[in-house]
Amino acid sequence: METQFYILLSLKTTQGFVDYGQYFFGNEREAAYDLFRQLKGDPDMMANCPLHIDLMETVDSLPVKIKSICCTLEELGFNCQLIAKEIFRLKNLEELP
């Protein structure tokens, strides 16, 4: 089975963390890792950090967390714009002859 990569967005609630968004990279390992390195945020996970972004990989159809950052609302906005631009670029390059 092919390994898949995606970025997972989650936020802290009174019941724990809830996932609310995913950006899929397919099997583009380098693209996912390169983009994750550009994201703004703190890799030190603090207990009181409400917004998390995780780089995920599927291994044997099971999700595995590779890296995580915690970010502010402003950083999250920047990160979502950056992720959307990069995925748009990658997907449109795939369709070129």
UniProtKB/TrEMBL annotation:
Query: What is the name attached to this protein's record?
Result: Uncharacterized protein
- What is the superkingdom listed in this entry's lineage? Bacteria
